[in-house]
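Box 4.2: Ligand-aware structure prediction
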Amino acid sequence: MIDLYYAPTPNGYKISLFLEEVGLPYTIYPVNIGTGEQFKPEFLAISPNNKIPAIVDHQPADGGEHISIFESGAILLYLANKTGQLLSKDVRERNQQLQWLFWQVAGFGPMLGQNHHFNHYASEVVPYAINRYMEESRRLVNVLNTQLEKTPYLGGNEYSIADIATYPWARCHEHQKINLNDYPAVEKWLEKIEQRPATQTAYNNG
Ligand SMILES: N[C@@H](CCC(=O)N[C@@H](CS)C(=O)NCC(=O)O)C(=O)O
C-alpha cells in the first residue's frame, strides 16, 4: 500500500495519474498547502522541502521497512522501477523518456509555475517578471510541440512517466495564458491523454 501526500495541483496529479494508470492501491492523505499543513513536523519528516507530493511505500521491493520519497520526479522514477511500468526497458527509449522527465521537473514545471504566480498571485504587478516567465513558458511549450510533432508521446512511441509529469502542467494552458491554436501537436497529445480512463479517475478524485 502506498500513502500519497497530496493536494490537487499539477505536481500532485502526477502521482495519482501514475498510480491510477498501473492500478497500485494507494491512500490519499490531503495536505492543505493553503493553510500551511506542509510545515507540520510530521509532514516535514517525509518531505523536508515542505512540498507535496510525497509518498510512503509500506511494501518496498527489498522487503525492508517503509521508504518515504519526496520530489515528483524521484517518486515517478521509484514507482516505475517498482512496478516495471511506464518507463521503457529499451535503453534508447528509456533514455529519451528520462530526458523529458528531467526537462519537466527542472524547467517546464518551475517556469510555468513562476508564470502562473506572476500572472495570478503576485501582490504587485511586475511587468519584467510577467514578460520573462511568459516568454519562457511559450518557448518551453514550443519545445514540447516540436517534440510531439516527431513522436506520439514525449519519449517516443509509448506513454511514459515523461508524459505523466508534463501533462498536468500543459493541461493548465489557459492559466498560463497560452493559446493552444499555436501548438497543435500539444493539443492533440493533451486530448489523447485526457481520454485515458486513469486520467479521468485521477482528476475525479479531487
Ligand atoms: N520540485 C517539486 C515541486 C513541488 C511543488 O512545487 N509543490 C507545491 C504544490 S504544486 C507545494 O507543495 N507548495 C507548498 C509550498 O511551497 O509551501 C516536485 O516536483 O515535487
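In the box above, the bound molecule is glutathione. The chain has two domains: 2-86, 91-196.
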